[in-house]
Design a protein that fits this description.
With 449 residues, the protein is mainly α. The protein has 19 helices and no strands. The protein has one domain. Helix content is 84%, strand content 0%. Helix 1 packs antiparallel against helix 11 and helix 6 crosses helix 8. The longest helix is centred in the first third of the chain and has 38 residues.
């Protein structure tokens, strides 16, 4: 297959994937800056914030499920140029995200100690993490709405808006974090609470900018209250039938990731800090692949919406080959550059440095499998409307393989963190093997509109 000769595919892919990849790069860079600043406060602060952010991670992945479940509809409706239906889907997604945001805000703001005790019994980590959660919880509802609006822009082929907004958010968050954390401009040093406050203000800036663009441009997302929040019963049933498996998928998958964090915390504070550092680095390498995955959701969905099922299958194979190939290259780079990337972080003791380096080697070796899976599940299966299969595939691999192996390695065998990560990586390998026959069968191609 020579997809380099398919000019239409490449043009469409680059116009969507590049802005999304750049936006993800900015978001991941912001996470790295936050981690760098937090690491300067010491290992306990780094570990505490890493555990506290598992609450946000669980929350935002359910929001991601709502968003990507809606993406299937938006992409196919955009293929038909059905703007009114896109607005209805957008309104449903915002409503669901807001309700979820209220629940998580109450939990994090009023019961942070209980949440932290789920991860650790170390008093200093509970104290620091609780302070962080009380403040960062103020950003949860805003983040949900912003996230869904960003997905709306992407699925209506306007990904440059989220990119431009994310640049402003990156600058705002970085500057404010520095000022609040370290007490600049005459303000008191707030430590991790300052990092949380900087993020809250940056999220407020983000939502204001997104809403301004939506309604000043009068584009496909600029619905009235009636267009957004008045739905026919049949429309809601059809939406929930396709979107609910994705929401359940992300919810239970992210809960599995949270349990990974619990297993890693059983090894010790250093293991938690190691995972926080390596996850931050891995996210930087993953930005290109997220661009591929999101672009494939839109382009495959558009093809199915147009009634071109063979075109959708052709696009799926092209995206999968590209993502696996790029993943192989990036994995090698992750291994080769491990010393360079780890030197960016300050105050790492020798043991933390070595465990992080070993973990980067292991993740780099299987990175192409992770990139293949990301495109297969988020792009091919969900973009194609096969959300139920993707739900069973992800939930089965996490709960039957990943989580049991994490606790087996950490609690029973008492392995070092890098070897536990190697055990957990078997989940990705098995997931890829199982998904290939489904892709070849074309049973994932489903017109949901």
């Amino acid at each position: 297959m020579n997809f380099w000769k398919d000019k239409l595919f490449l043009k469409s892919m680059m116009s969507i994937a590049v802005p999304i990849a750049l936006q993800n790069l900015i978001s991941s860079s912001l996470n790295m800056v936050d981690t760098l600043m937090t690491s300067s406060l010491g290992q306990s602060s780094l570990a505490a914030v890493g555990l506290a952010n598992q609450v946000f991670f669980f929350y935002i992945l359910i929001i991601f499920g709502i968003g990507t479940g809606s993406s299937t509809f938006m992409a196919q409706y955009w293929g038909k140029k059905d703007v009114l239906s896109i607005r209805k889907v957008l309104g449903l997604a915002i409503s669901m995200g807001t309700i979820l945001g209220i629940l998580f805000t109450i939990a994090a703001a009023f019961f942070p100690e209980y949440l932290m005790r789920f991860f650790t019994d170390i008093p200093i980590l509970i104290e620091i993490g609780s302070d962080y959660l009380r403040t960062i919880s103020l950003s949860y509802i805003i983040t949900a709405i912003s996230f869904i609006l960003n997905i709306g822009f992407r699925n209506t082929e306007n990904p440059k808006v989220p990119l431009r907004v994310s640049i402003v958010v990156f600058i705002t968050n970085t500057v404010l974090n520095y000022i609040f954390m370290f007490g600049k401009l005459g303000l008191p040093a707030m430590g991790v609470k300052g990092a949380a406050l900087g993020t809250v203000v940056a999220r407020v800036v983000e939502i204001i900018m997104l809403l301004y663009v939506v309604y000043s441009s009068k584009g496909p997302l600029a619905g009235s209250l009636k267009e957004l929040f008045v739905w026919e019963k049949e429309f809601v049933k059809r939406y929930l039938k396709t979107a609910s498996p994705v929401v359940f998928n992300e919810g239970f998958w992210s809960l599995g990731q949270v349990l990974y964090a619990v297993a890693y915390a059983k090894i010790g504070e250093q293991a938690t800090a190691t995972v926080q550092i390596v996850s931050t680095i891995q996210n930087i390498f993953f930005v290109i692949v997220r661009g591929f995955a999101n672009a494939s959701t839109v382009m495959i969905g558009n093809k199915i919406g147009e009634g071109n099922e063979e075109g959708a299958f052709d696009y799926a194979i092209k995206f999968l080959v590209m993502s696996a190939s790029v993943g192989l290259i990036l994995g090698l780079l992750m291994i080769i550059s491990s010393d360079l990337t780890l030197k960016i972080f300050r105050n790492l003791d020798t043991e933390l440095y070595q465990s992080a380096k070993s973990m980067l080697f292991i993740i780099g070796a299987v990175f192409f499998v992770k990139t293949f899976n990301s495109t297969a599940i988020v792009g091919v299966f969900r973009g194609g409307g096969d959300t139920t299969y993707s739900m069973f595939l992800e939930m089965g691999s996490v709960w039957l393989i990943g989580v049991p192996f994490a606790f087996l390695g950490a609690v029973v065998l008492k392995l070092p963190i890098q070897l536990v990560i190697a055990l957990v990586s078997l989940e990705d390998i098995i997931k890829a093997i199982v998904s290939i026959p489904r892709i070849a069968s074309k049973k994932w191609i489903k017109n949901v509109t």
